[in-house]
Amino acid sequence: MNVIFMGTPDFSVPCLTKLIERGHKVSAVFTQPDKPVGRKHILTAPPVKTAALENNIPVYQPDSLKNGGAYNIIKDYKPDVIIVVAYGKILPPEILKAAKYGCINVHASLLPKYRGASPIQQAVLNGDSETGVTVMQMDEGIDTGDMLLVKKTEIGINETSDELFDRLSVIGAQALAECLDLLSDGSIKPVKQSGDGVSYTQKITKALSPIDWSKTAFEVHNQVRGLQNWPCAETKINGKTVKIHKTVLSAETGNKPGVVVDNKNTLTVCCGDGKCVEILALQPEGKKRMDIKSFLAGNKIEILTELGM
């Protein structure tokens, strides 16, 4: 097939790579503009742009799709299909209809659950045991189009959103390849999304970071693994802000939320349901991430220390 690909982050790259491997003609790639990254604000290309240029595919990075310029470029390529994977821009109606088979989106949730911007993180934050990828026909709504193919997978109890992100990107690539095969031979059977169980996710922000130790141990654990790397769950230890990178559920129990109940080679903290979590990795303010043994070697944390204060 003659394909226009639209995507931006690491999650999109396996789908682009799979299209190339399967012999589809990727005529052009649309991605977000380069952005400053890091403390030095170095202008950095999106991962999809890097992958496209490595395969000698023309790249377009419009600031907006609303002025007709992008549509005219796409129309000139006469695509069979437009593939959209975490592009990050709303497509105007004329682009949705610019290809023979329209626009097909790879979305990292089991629709209609978790439409919107952060389906992977939200599944982990909510402690879901299952998620997946939905390949759908795009319409003018936000993730509301007919479903073309669904792939499910379990979520491990200690799996982080970053780990799930990587797995779903691979599952999504395989699902896309299967979907295009079905589309080519005319055997695809679109299914309308159910009106039940619809939910929308918002962008992840730092407002989600502070840990509320009055929540259950499972909720605190989900917060840590759902926000791992960015923006990270945070608490205060002896008045200093610390990012919590990794926890596990503990067999220990306690009776006051946020209180340390074990400080021997681990830091075990009681939560609102009387159950506990063990902190395995953290990052003090202004320092690098470290395992808990390294942290405790340089910081004396007494039993009954109250976190969050």
Characterise this structure.
This protein is of the alpha/beta class and 309 residues long. Helix content is 25%, strand content 28%. It has 8 helices and 17 strands. It has helices at 13-21, 47-54, 69-77, 93-96, 119-125, 161-184, 217-226, 292-298; strands at 2-7, 25-30, 35-37, 42-44, 59-60, 81-85, 103-107, 115-116, 130-137, 147-154, 200-201, 233-237, 240-253, 260-262, 267-270, 275-284, 290-291. A 7-stranded mixed beta sheet has the order 5-2-1-6-7-9-10, with helices on both faces. Strand 16 and strand 17 (290-291) form a beta hairpin. The longest helix has 24 residues, at 161-184. The chain starts with a strand and ends in an 11-residue tail after the last helix. The mean pLDDT is 96.
Short overview:
This protein is an alpha/beta fold and 309 residues long.
Question: How are the elements arranged and paired?
Answer:
Blueprint lengths: L1 E6 L5 H9 L3 E6 L4 E3 L4 E3 L2 H8 L4 E2 L8 H9 L3 E5 L7 H4 L6 E5 L7 E2 L2 H7 L4 E8 L9 E8 L6 H24 L15 E2 L15 H10 L6 E5 L2 E14 L6 E3 L4 E4 L4 E10 L5 E2 H7 L11
Parallel strand pairs: 1-2, 1-6, 2-5, 6-7, 8-11
Antiparallel strand pairs: 3-4, 7-9, 9-10, 12-13, 13-16, 14-15, 15-16, 16-17
